[in-house]
Amino acid sequence: MKKTRSHELRDEVRNKIWPDEDAWTGENEVGFFQAPRTLPLILVLLSMKAVSGKLNPSRVYLELWARHMGGGIIEMKHEGDHAYAAGYTSRRGVRTWRDNMALLEANGFIKTKKAGNQQYKYVFLVHPTAVVEKLKRQDKVDSHWLETYELRQLETKERTFAERVKAKKEAVKAAQKVVPMTPQKAAVKKVSA
């Protein structure tokens, strides 16, 4: 893949300032996850009292993103592993993790599906812009945070909630306009005898 000028510039800076260090470049790497560039701000929102009260589910939410492999779906493993990865290491760790999962679901950040005895077998990550819009309508979002979030969306070219809704509507309209093609009967040529 050909590097852009900005990639080349960052390489030059890295090689000049930290020539002997092992840099995380993301190139030819496995074992990392995709996330919105606004994720740090979403984690700040999760830590706000208006959203989470006395709890802070931001580490649980981050751990879920790190387990996401695509499609918005996470197939959960053992609760103790998730709790430990989110930083809950005491005997009450799983219970605290569950409380935070319930809070994430109550605030609309995730949806969950139980299977058998496993309370959280599947987790669906709701698009953060949709969650922010919902919380904004519930007056749970601080105006300063919201302004900062919206400016970061502009900077990263992340679509706003309104832009996402508009794009979905346009996609539905476009799909309705598609006329299914039916096979045409082959033209029969009359041969004069």
Report on the architecture of this protein.
There is one protein chain. The protein has a domain at 33-161: Orthogonal Bundle (Arc Repressor Mutant, subunit A), CATH 1.10.10.10. The mean pLDDT is 91. It has a three-stranded antiparallel β-sheet, with helices on one face. With 193 residues, it is mostly helical. It starts with a helix and ends in a 16-residue tail after the last helix. It has helices at residues 5-17, 39-47, 49-52, 58-67, 79-85, 93-106, 128-137, 143-156, 161-177; strands at 73-75, 110-115, 118-125. 51% of the residues lie in helices and 9% in strands. The longest helix is centred in the last third of the chain and has 17 residues, at 161-177. The protein contains nine helices and three strands, in the order ααααβααββααα.
Give the SSE layout:
Elements: H1 5-17, H2 39-47, H3 49-52, H4 58-67, E1 73-75, H5 79-85, H6 93-106, E2 110-115, E3 118-125, H7 128-137, H8 143-156, H9 161-177
Antiparallel strand pairs: 1-3, 2-3
Helix pairs in contact: 2-4, 5-6
Short description:
With 193 residues, the protein is mainly alpha-helical. It has 9 helices and 3 strands; from the N terminus they run ααααβααββααα. It has a domain at 33-161: Arc Repressor Mutant, subunit A, CATH 1.10.10.10.
End-to-end gap: 64 Å
Number of strands: 3
Q: What is the CATH third-level topology name of the domain at 33-161?
A: Arc Repressor Mutant, subunit A
Indicate the low-confidence ranges by residue numbers. Answer: none
Share in β-strands:
5-15%
Shape: globular
Helix and strand composition category: mainly alpha
Architecture per CATH nomenclature, i.e. the level-2 architecture of the domain at 33-161: Orthogonal Bundle
Task: Work out the helicity level.
Answer: 40-55%
State the CATH superfamily name of the domain at 33-161. Winged helix-like DNA-binding domain superfamily/Winged helix DNA-binding domain
**What topology, given as strand order, has the largest sheet?**
1-3-2
What's the alpha carbon Rg, rounded to whole Å? 24 Å
What is the average of the pLDDT values?
91
SSE order, one letter for each helix or strand? HHHHEHHEEHHH
Number of helices: 9
Major sheet attributes? 3 strands, antiparallel
Please report the first level of CATH classification, the CATH class of the domain at 33-161.
Answer: Mainly Alpha
